[in-house]
Design brief:
Helices cover 48% and strands 15% of the residues. It is of the alpha+beta class and 158 residues long. It has helices at residues 39-45, 49-56, 65-70, 88-97, 100-107, 112-124, 131-141, 145-157; strands spanning 4-9, 15-19, 24-28, 34-38, 60-62. The strands form 2 sheets. The protein has a 3-stranded antiparallel β-sheet. It folds into 2 domains: 4-70, no CATH class; 88-157, no CATH class.
Length: 158
């Protein structure tokens, strides 16, 4: 296990953490932006509720599986991550490439924040997905995806 731990943002906007007591302040500018921490910093941040919630919800993603196990993000017996990194490539795979049956199955493993990110992606990239996926995503996200796609098209035209 490396002493340098990469933490990647899966959030579409800017986000950050500020822990005055630990003298740790970090910023991510958008999805895919990464910041490096030391292992000791991550071990200390496991007691920072805001940081841990961002990791548990999939807003921030820790690459190192062993570190995730140590701080309780992944079960000890896990060989593959149970919480995936929902980056642009994964969002595109879900929305454009994944068959509907697999889409329904795999979205059950996403966090609420990840479903919201997928819904936002679907609205911005409407023509790449299917009506069936849009309807299912509407059901699980609470957002009207087809209406969102329509409004997105109107805003692009106007």
């Amino acid at each position: 296990m490396s002493d340098k731990i990469k933490v990647i943002s899966a959030y579409d906007g800017r986000c950050g953490i500020d822990n005055v007591g630990l003298h740790i302040s970090r910023r991510w500018q958008g999805r895919g932006d990464s910041v490096v921490f030391t292992k000791e910093q991550i071990e200390e941040l496991q007691f920072d509720t805001a940081f841990m919630n961002m990791v548990r919800e999939g807003i921030l993603y820790i690459e190192d599986m062993e570190v995730k196990k140590e701080i309780g993000i992944e079960p000890e017996e896990a060989e593959e991550p149970t919480l995936i990194l929902l980056d642009e490539k994964a969002l595109r795979r879900f929305w454009r490439d994944m068959p509907l049956a697999q889409f329904k199955l795999e979205t059950k493993n996403l966090t609420i924040q990840q479903i919201k990110s997928l819904a936002d992606y679907a609205i911005r990239h409407g023509g790449e997905g299917s009506i069936e996926k849009a309807n299912y995503l509407t059901t699980i996200s609470g957002q009207n995806i087809l209406k969102g796609i329509e409004l997105e098209k109107l805003s692009q035209e106007g």
